What does this fold into?
Amino acid sequence: MARITLIIAAGLLLAAGCSGQGEQAGDEDSEVTRVEGVPVSTAERPIVIIETDSGDIVTELFPDVAPVTCDSILSLVHQKFYDSLTFHRIIPGFVIQGGDPLGDGTGNPGFSLPAEFSSRLHVEGTLSMARGAHSIHSAGCQFFICLGALQSLDNQYTVFGQVIEGIEVVRKLAAVPTGAMDRPVETLYIRRMYENK
It folds into this structure.
């Protein structure tokens, strides 16, 4: 019972922490937009590398189940949007979250994405889109990496990729002590994100 309560509470914290993200989105009927103008990968399963001071996290994207999200992530990656941003939230046993241009869980890229739910499950190493609690269509640029199986997030958040190498780096980042608002006590930089072509 305590574990279920912890999972529900962590899920609420995840949603609440993103409540400022995508404020332009409004309610679920709001218009969603896509990033335009930057060519994205034609690879069936693009590989994106997240460089951190603790090592590299190699991820595989799933455009077959989240095409709009993957297109947007790759466009932001090609624009170097994520370079020098941070992992601003750590919830042990739950997720590490990053990709916020403001670094506090309230930032967004100026647009929002539609929810793309699929049969993909939230397991250790899953990449999924953070969003505001007010709308399932409020994801923009913030994402999280799961630290274990999280069934409570399935069909609630858009799964768009999976860590295929460097899960030990994710675990090392997740072990950093946190303070208020689940913020790590040291700055955990995303030094660079790039597509491995």
Notes: Residues 1-39 have pLDDT under 50 and may be disordered.
